[in-house]
């Protein structure tokens, strides 16, 4: 498959279906994916089995310098982004200075482009860490992944490095008191002989139940668009995503469908 990796700290702005004009920050090493999930649909490709302790991340100072200079340039030409988005080559909250970098980003944004929001796309596995929880509480768009409400499906889709307890994850999400956005990628197909489908009636019923418990500001649903590392996966049609979206709406929760 062709993998999609970022080769710098700052990328874009790019036009994002879900976020608008988005200036990206990649805290992970260039040309390499680092994550504690190994999602079967990940556009960055498969996760290598590496110990995070041995990795070198972009130093906080470099991130500060790169973001400040890019934002000054954009604002001076009238091109301020709608959002600064932490995404890139893997899971941003793994960075050891993630909380301090979020503080820096808030400071830079407030001084240079106060109308720009800050977003983090995260798989939510690090929100049990107080520093990560506090950092995510300080941004406008705390976007956390929840691809299934059934542990077995979640493990098949996300293939976490370490076993995660779904009930613990949900109670950590509840601690944000609604200041979070849930993102769910829908797909079906098979991998390693296992049938996978997070759109079945059972799946949606269980997922809606969790959404009601979490009470997020918004739910974003989508399907994959690029090559996936696992073969045999099928995208979900816009029509089907809209049907799922209407069910979320019925629960009084804001929905954004990105076909
Ligand atoms: S959490 Fe994101 S970066 Fe990590 S494997 Fe899944 S899709 Fe890829």
Summarize the structure in words.
The structure is a single chain. The protein is an alpha/beta fold and 259 residues long. The protein contains 7 helices and 11 strands. The strands form 2 sheets. Strands 1-2-3-4-5-6-9-11 form an 8-stranded mixed beta sheet. Strands 8-7-10 form a 3-stranded antiparallel beta sheet, with helices on one face. Strand 7 and strand 8 (194-197) form a beta hairpin. Helix 1 packs parallel to helix 2 and helix 2 packs parallel to helix 3 (130-137). The protein binds iron/sulfur cluster. Iron/sulfur cluster is lined by residues 35, 37-39, 42, 44, 47, 90-91, 123.
Number of domains: 1
Provide the CATH top-level class: Alpha Beta
CATH topology: TIM Barrel
Mean pLDDT: 94
- Going by helix content, strand content and strand pairing, the class is alpha/beta
Strand order of the largest sheet: 1-2-3-4-5-6-9-11
Strand content: 15-25%
